[in-house]
Specification:
One of its GO terms (biological process) is creatine biosynthetic process. The chain is of the alpha/beta class. Helices cover 41% and strands 7% of the residues.
Length: 256
């Protein structure tokens, strides 16, 4: 069976591919976090895995199972920890997961690892995990790691097309047009268009406060409206993301 998914391969098939074609291995990282009433809790992991798979198919890569628990949801970009279902890990836990996983891929003989992050709050803890893993790996190891947030590969032209009335910024796009459109493209059966609220954009002060104030966040958890999301926009973005990430991987790792 031909597949890009590591968890659907036998160890023999995986090992042979690593040794013979030296493919890039993609590690999606997401979160289990509220995404309003219209999207599933697993949206971040689902989308990072889908983008990774679309990219891997273009360049004969392999996609590892997603790390599906992320760092604590923050009010200004994820709604916050007060939502039922949001299930987060401490920074050290995420750092350890990334560190151990990267180290394991090095042990397999992987030379090109691409970590595709789908949860805003994860960024610096993924970076720390990579850094610690690279220290652990013995000198002479061939592993190189690329870390990216998939949304950074959307061009201004595409964003203007998707947001003709103005782009509110990635932080406020939580559970809004980008994620909803991509989910409509990749997982339409998991989207409830009839439940999209007309909230936001949220108006946050230029500071944080602890404990977090849940009144800062719309009750739905959506930071700007997802009205206007559709599968066509999702397809346009998905194709651009896969093509541009593939181009970056090829350029960085000289993958052919």
């Amino acid at each position: 069976m031909n597949t890009v998914n590591m968890n659907k391969m036998s160890w023999v098939a995986y090992c042979a591919q690593i040794k013979t074609t030296n493919p890039p291995v993609f590690l999606p990282v997401g979160a289990l976090e509220q995404h309003g009433p219209h999207l599933p809790l697993g949206t971040d992991a689902l989308l990072s895995a889908a983008v990774a798979a679309s990219t891997a198919e273009l360049i004969n890569g392999i996609v590892a199972p997603a790390l599906s628990y992320g760092y604590k949801s923050q009010p200004k970009c994820g709604g916050g920890q007060h939502f039922c279902g949001t299930t987060s890990v401490d920074a050290q836990t995420l750092i350890g997961l990334v560190r151990d996983t990267v180290r394991e891929f090095a042990r397999h003989g992987v030379e090109k690892l691409v970590i595709v992050n789908g949860h805003f709050e994860n960024q610096w803890f993924i970076t720390e995990g990579i850094d610690l893993a690279m220290r652990d790996i013995q000198p002479g190891a061939k592993l190189r790691v690329m870390r990216l947030e998939y949304w950074d590969f959307l061009t201004e032209t595409t964003l203007h097309s998707v947001f003709p009335n103005g782009f509110p910024g990635y932080a406020l796009e939580h559970a809004a047009i980008i994620e909803t459109s991509l989910m409509l493209h990749y997982h339409p059966d998991l989207v409830r268009l009839d439940l999209i609220p007309d909230d936001g954009p949220a108006d946050f002060p230029p500071y944080d406060i602890y404990p977090a104030n849940p009144d800062w966040v719309p009750p739905s958890g959506v930071l700007s409206s997802a009205l206007g999301a559709d599968a066509e926009k999702g397809e346009i973005m998905a194709k651009e993301l896969a093509a541009r990430i593939a181009q970056a991987v090829v350029a960085e790792f000289n993958q052919t």
